[in-house]
Design a protein that fits this description.
about 500 residues; alpha/beta; seven-stranded mixed beta sheet; five-stranded mixed beta sheet; 16 helices
Length: about 500
């Protein structure tokens, strides 16, 4: 009987393969980085073939590390950097161009062109997203308009598109020899091409953008009992194993955190923060600068939707204090400095280094430290930097509650910063709800494993997964309501000081 589930976690800078047992425990991990390619300012690319090579290497490495035979594996799940776009020849698997990464901004003129008729929210009622360089659709348009011969290949049906999940599943299940060309609802919802209601490609948007429908993968559930094919005997597993789980990385973290009830939210603390709130089986339009997106779809059950908010600078602010101002040697040292003082001394640090993201979307904002007196030292600044992460999280979650009418019950957290005890306590205080860190913090890979395992009966249902989820630590709110209110009002006042700083973006 199979004992393990494999998750391939293909991220922006590296690829990991993780093996999980029935309890959700980590059995083995193998990870390798891939090259970041910057051809021009604002352009970010990856070599899709290198990503496939690294994926094969980490799969073999994880199996060897755990001394696990392929026959011990029940299924394979994929999770991936969302929006990163690949177009390749279905006959030989060769990409027509490097993968264009989600961070890439070369499509700004295409986005402006599409927005001339209907503005930034032209497609939002259908797809839940504003027009932005972030999403896959405009990246496909750029390739069609700029890569020699691609338009003809797309029209003839030879050129096919996918985000990285689609690329990996296609290769794992056969590649040019019958590989399955699919994507799940969560990744499809990040293309700006899928209708949130029908869960199918929107023909009107495809026509507007000039993208041939035959390029696009078939949209499938995140966890699919029908599976999409088996791995090849001459592939990295050396045996036929069903591939049947697929989730974009932030949605995978939501699944790994077992946020299966309306009102449950997770926050991933990294360079920035990504928050998702489960809003149930109906998409909720955002009027507060958030994204309406798919959370997951299990088999033939109704799809579950989420609201998503993104914060540009959280962990990156700690790195900035470390690298630019030389406050400390290691990022983890900030907790010692911040803990040396009782509070931030009345200052606020708003890290709008490249404008404000959700819920403001103010590109003309710039960073500020306000409330400075001669009393302030680097301990206060360190503490204010940590508090900035908590305040920004409060703003996005306030927007989520306003949009959804759903009151937050607790915040489940993951990512590197969740081991900072001072930050997590302040986060609970400023939110006024418990903040919960799980035992298994690799929630992205775990979510992909759960999706695959549910499909093949390795786990029976969502309740099984809830039983797996274990609390490492919970931080309960301890701050008086009056103090919380005063501090948060000060933050909102400080944010206003950042706005309209850049009068001419060309300067």
């Amino acid at each position: 009987m199979a004992k393990y589930i494999v998750a391939v976690d293909q991220g922006t800078t590296s690829t990991r393969c993780m093996l999980f047992d029935h309890s959700g425990g980590v059995v083995a991990v193998e990870q390798k980085e891939h090259e970041q390619i910057y051809p021009q300012p604002g352009w970010v690319e990856h070599d899709a073939m290198e990503i496939w090579d690294r994926s094969q290497e980490v799969i073999k490495g994880a199996l060897n590390a755990a001394n696990v035979e392929a026959g011990d594996i029940a299924a394979v799940g994929i999770t991936n950097q969302r929006e990163t776009t690949v177009v390749w020849d279905k006959n030989n698997g060769k990409p027509y161009y490097n993968a264009i990464v989600w961070q890439d901004t070369r499509t700004d003129r295409i986005v402006d062109r599409l927005g001339k008729d209907g503005g930034q929210d032209r497609f939002r009622p259908k797809v839940g997203l504003p027009l932005a360089t972030y999403f896959s659709g405009p990246k496909v348009v750029w390739m069609l308009e700029n890569v020699d011969g691609l338009r003809a290949a797309a029209d003839s049906g030879d050129a096919i598109f996918g985000n990285i999940d689609t690329w990996l599943i296609w290769w794992l299940t056969g590649g040019p020899d019958g590989g399955s060309h699919v994507t799940d609802v969560t990744n499809a919802s990040r293309t700006m091409l899928m209708n949130l209601e029908t869960l199918d490609w929107d023909d009107e948007i495809l026509q507007t953008m000039g993208i041939p429908r035959q390029m696009l993968p078939r949209i499938v559930p995140s966890s699919d009992p029908e599976t999409w094919g088996n791995t090849l005997e001459d592939g990295p597993f050396g045996e036929a194993i069903p591939v049947c789980g697929d989730l974009g990385d932030q949605q995978a973290a939501l699944v790994g955190q077992t946020c299966y009830s309306v009102g449950e939210a997770k926050n991933t603390y990294g360079t920035g923060c990504f928050m998702l709130l489960n809003t149930g089986t109906e998409p909720i339009p955002s009027e507060s600068g958030l994204l309406t997106t798919l959370a997951y779809k299990i088999g033939d059950r109704p799809a579950v939707y989420a609201l998503e908010g993104s914060i540009a600078i959280t962990g990156a602010l700690v790195q900035w204090l470390r690298d630019n101002l030389n406050f400390f040697e290691k990022s983890a040292d900030i907790e010692e400095f911040a803990g040396a003082v009782e509070d931030s001394g009345g200052i606020y640090f708003v890290p709008a280094f490249s404008g404000l993201f959700a819920p403001y979307w103010q590109s003309d904002a710039r960073g500020v430290i306000v409330g400075l007196t001669r009393y302030i030292d680097k301990n206060h600044i360190s503490r204010a930097a940590l508090e900035a992460t908590a305040y920004q999280t409060r703003e996005v979650l306030d927007a989520m509650e306003k949009d959804s009418g759903v009151e937050l019950k607790a915040l489940k957290v993951d990512g590197g910063m969740v081991y900072n005890e001072l930050l997590m306590q302040f986060q609970a205080d400023i939110l006024g709800v418990p903040v919960i860190r799980p035992v298994v913090s690799e929630t992205t890979a775990l979510g992909a494993a759960y999706a695959a395992g549910l499909a093949v009966g390795f786990w029976n249902d969502l309740e099984d997964l809830r039983q797996n989820w274990q609390v490492s630590k919970t931080w309960e709110p301890q701050m008086e309501d009056s103090r919380q209110k005063k501090l948060y009002e000060g933050w909102l006042k400080a944010v206003q000081r950042t706005m309209n700083w850049v009068e001419d973006e060309g300067e």
